[in-house]
UniProtKB/TrEMBL annotation:
Transmembrane segments: none annotated. Belongs to the phosphohexose mutase family. Residues 148-194 are annotated as: Disordered. Residues 38-157 form the Alpha-D-phosphohexomutase alpha/beta/alpha domain. It holds the Pfam family PGM_PMM_I. The keyword Transmembrane does not apply. Keywords: Isomerase, Magnesium, Metal-binding. PROSITE patterns: PGM_PMM. The keyword Isomerase applies. PANTHER family: PHOSPHOGLUCOMUTASE 2B-RELATED, PHOSPHOMANNOMUTASE 45A. This is Alpha-D-phosphohexomutase alpha/beta/alpha domain-containing protein. Signal peptide: none annotated.
Amino acid sequence: MDPRAGTPAQPQDLIDVDAVVGAYYDRHPDPEDPAQKVVFGTSGHRGSSLDSAFNEDHIVAITQAILEYRRSQGTDGPLFIGRDTHALSLPAWESALQVLAAAGVEVRIDARDSWTPTPAVSHAILTFNGATSADGLRTSGPGLADGIVVTPSHNPRVTAASSTTRRTAGPRAPRRPAGSRTARTRSCGPASGR
């Protein structure tokens, strides 16, 4: 265990949130630089906006690729999307929502319009797809849901990640970016839709 665990953050631990968020919108990846391309790890793209490896361009392209993949798989139910409290989660979540809304995808978000624990998105997908029914989890047919989680999880504090979650609530990596098009969003919880 780190000897500083549970102690207050030191000045060298802090990041310039404005610089990190500003770089998300202002910097654009160089397609010739392999370090700035969309690269999927365990279940999603990871990188830092300060290195031009996680920017709005990346999220738009990834979300468009998710749309194309959903269509190819016949997934036409709602898409559950969550985010955590890290600096780039909200901007990336908003960028993804814009792409999804433009494509007319029914999107479900946290009832509080706030952060969402990653397992809650998986639970919402499983519940929607019938995991609690006597017939078991549906994995094919019309109306199936899937999702996206924007979270850096265990990554360094200036790093962000975008992960996709398939109909069975496990990770999925979309294939390639597609074209884009704005917004029906509904709450994941009991509160009224948005």
